[in-house]
Amino acid sequence: MVETIVILDFGSQYTQVIARRVRECNVYSVILRYDTPAKEIATLRPSGIILSGGPSSVYSKKAPLPDRAVFNLGLPLLGVCYGLQLLGHFLGGKVEKGEKREYGKGALRVTDSFCPLFANLPETLQVWNSHGDKLTKLPKGFKSVAVTENSQFAAIEDRSRKMFGLQFHPEVAHTPRGKEILANFVHNICGCGKNWTMRSYIEQAVEEIRTQVGNERVILGLSGGVDSSVAAALIHKAIGDQLTCIFVNNGLLRGREAGVVREVFGRHFKIKLQYEDASKLFLRRLKGVTDPERKRKIIGTTFIEVFQSATKRAGAAKFLAQGTLYPDVIESVPIAGNPAAMIKSHHNVGGLPKKMKFKLVEPLKCLFKDEVRELGLELGLPREIVLRQPFPGPGLAVRILGEVTPQRCEILRNADTIVVEEMKSSGWYYKIWQSFAVLLPVRSVGVMGDERTYDYTIAIRAVESQDGMTADWVKLPYDLLEKLASRIINEVKGVNRCVFDITSKPPGTIEWE
Ligand code: XMP
């Protein structure tokens, strides 16, 4: 059994960050709902438990509370923020409303350097606080081991029971040495080794896929994106030719997309690849359509239709593989004020119809995106695929405003190729979330040589983001912007003007649609 840290989720927006930090220590972590029964937790035989933060007050009627028996499992326990207040609430301490909300950077002073959480760390540390309530009386058996200006109990411990509490958030980047605190917890206190690596995961996943699939056949819809590509490479490693990948060309792909996929998967990995060129069908159906929602709908239903008939041609398969990731399957805690519960991606909803009676193979279901990238590299996929920026399912259609025609696709594809090339050669491509060109349906006057032109405008968009939910526009250097504009206007026929989008999300969206 893999050594595991269980994280009970009380609705903090940072719960997933805790899970990722633990995994960065090469220790496997799982997120469970706050009220998961202790007995159920025990069946996982975890090495320790972390109680996450959360927006509630332990005294409110609707406060999410854990199964009391969690405190009697005899396991090492770390309460973070609201988690620390739970220690107070359940183990004989006292929590009160703070006079003022403590929010932002603070200086922590470690008063007991023997506390194993702070081993090999300096006496003062910068930490990030975000809490209203405050522990005012220590729970029984506990003592304070660190203080801040506003709190005598910024870190507490009962070393004999291996229980610890932190009032601040060690998981966020604003607590620069927080990862070392978490590493101390999982390695020194819980006794975990460093066994969670993508190399060991491959062995485990290959075994599981073989057991699940047996001699049956598996179909996978390859989009060229990171997730489906890594899933394909992993499943292929496990079952070879029992896997067939279907790649649909919807006519809305980037310049080299179809070529790269056929080259990498067909020729290099020798994966059975069924290439479906449906570009004409998609473009025919999009003819004359300008409403963004209708475009999306047409693309969605056409894709299902094409994919369905492609699966029939691929021969009888019992399984359908998908590149579902861990954040898609974590059950979010329905607590008011928990942004994670309210923001659910509005994209990729629906998926394939239920009547396609496949059993699912989802070998990335317990991985975070960073891990999927690492796994892809470990499996030998090229950087071009593993480190690529997200590309929306409806493709260039969400970047062509107004009607999608073959001519407009061509213009945008040419402009996009230049953006990708220049972003890569300047090193910016891999530093940011997304960068791309958008084709606007407005034409304006220009001069080229002695001639008057009347052509389209390209907007350049470059954004920084963690997950696509919020985003900032990237301050690209002027000389790079200049190069982009001059190349696009000179090399792309049909374009005589370039603008740079300086809108953040919110209030804007990333794609223009
Ligand atoms: P917006 O435009 O909503 O986009 O700010 C947020 C992120 O989602 C991507 N996106 C999509 N991804 N299917 C996808 O797989 C889609 O239909 C889709 N629409 C937008 C977008 O590129 C950005 O990263």
Q: Please outline the major beta sheet.
A: 9 strands, mixed
Large-scale geometry: globular
What compounds are bound to the protein?
Answer: xanthosine-5'-monophosphate
Distance between the termini: 47 Å
Radius of gyration: 26 Å
Strands side by side in the biggest sheet: 2-1-3-4-9-8-7-5-6
Strand content is 15-25%
pLDDT below 50 for ≥5 consecutive residues: which ranges?
Answer: 341-345
In total, the number of strands is: 18
Explain this structure.
Helix content is 32%, strand content 24%. The chain has 15 helices and 18 strands. Strands 2-1-3-4-9-8-7-5-6 form a nine-stranded mixed β-sheet, with helices on both faces. Helix 7 links the parallel strand 11 and strand 12. The protein starts with a strand and ends in a 13-residue tail after the last strand. Xanthosine-5'-monophosphate is lined by residues 347-348, 390, 392-394, 398, 434, 468, 505, 509-511.
How is the topology of this model organized?
Blueprint: E1 4-9, H1 15-24, E2 28-33, H2 38-43, E3 48-51, E4 77-80, H3 82-90, E5 94-110, E6 124-137, E7 143-147, E8 155-158, E9 163-166, H4 178-189, H5 198-213, E10 218-222, H6 226-239, E11 243-249, H7 257-268, E12 272-277, H8 279-286, H9 292-313, E13 319-321, H10 326-329, H11 339-342, E14 359-361, H12 369-378, H13 383-386, H14 406-425, E15 434-448, E16 451-464, E17 472-473, H15 478-491, E18 495-500
Helix pairs in contact: 5-6, 5-12, 6-12, 8-9, 14-15
The protein binds xanthosine-5'-monophosphate.
The site of xanthosine-5'-monophosphate (XMP) has 13 residues, from loops.
